[in-house]
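Co-fold these.
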Amino acid sequence: MTLLDNGTSEIINPDTYFQTHTPSRTLIEDEIRVKEFVNKHHEAGRKIVLVTSGGTTVPLENNTVRFIDNFSAGTRGATSAEYPFIISVVWICGYIWGGINKSEGGINSSPYDPYLLLVNSKYASKMKFVLEKYQEFKKNETLLLLNFVTVTDYLFLLRSVTNIMSVLKENAMYYLAAAVSDFFIPAQKMSQHKIQSDGGLTLTMDQVPKFLKPMVTNWVPGGFIVSFKLETDPALLVDKSRLALMRYGHQIVIANLLTTRKREVVLITQDSEFQIKLTEDEIAEDKEIESKIIPELVKRHYEWIRNASHTGL
Ligand code: PAZ
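Predicted complex below.
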């Protein structure tokens, strides 16, 4: 974080960010694929969910040798897309395809056509379910997978995909589970070449612009937006989630703690809090919390659509 003389941190605005950074080389190709996908499903009268998952990296050099990563394995997004009710999905992910956490050693997989999977026997039945779901998506052409690596790739991709999906108006859900870096080194301040190791390293980072505000206001006004809030301090979780709702004006924040995120979350709206928790029996059966989150969100999304048609949104 760059600290200004007065001790406040510098926040670049989203427009300046997009003007001063370069998207990934695959962005144009990705946009074409998203347009085709969205047009096809929109014409067929289907709803589409955008799922983002995984972590974004922050390069330290323009010719990147080193980067800062975060803990996210992309499990939340991957697992969520497996559940019924999720019909047409544009899924942008960093790292993995598959419902099993990379840190659990479950699978080795490719984001596209996996032809060799090494499956830990503990996960065999789960993997069968995931593969069947994937085959179903493939057969019906209802899943579009897009990848990102850096935070810049992610932000450009998010802006493009949401702009294209805005034609769906309230018939789209945006499920933002990716762990997006909060700090980065702007391209113009980054070392061009590998940083030499002839002493210690002090990093100065800027704050990544808050993209939820332009997303809610300009990119997809009328869309049903669900963001996630991760904290490690339970005392901050609900207040920070509420603050995000107030600041950005979207529909739901799902609050989760790092250590309990797989068994407990709180769905927070402008006027309610709703806890979703796995019971001890469900945990013993390896039930996934997403099997409870997704139906609840789909129900709320339908209510949102009903209200939107009344209010003419
Ligand atoms: O990717 P994962 O399954 O390991 O973890 C999911 C998560 C904690 C990244 C997600 O639930 C989340 O909270 N995403 C938003 C993180 C944030 O506050 O930026």
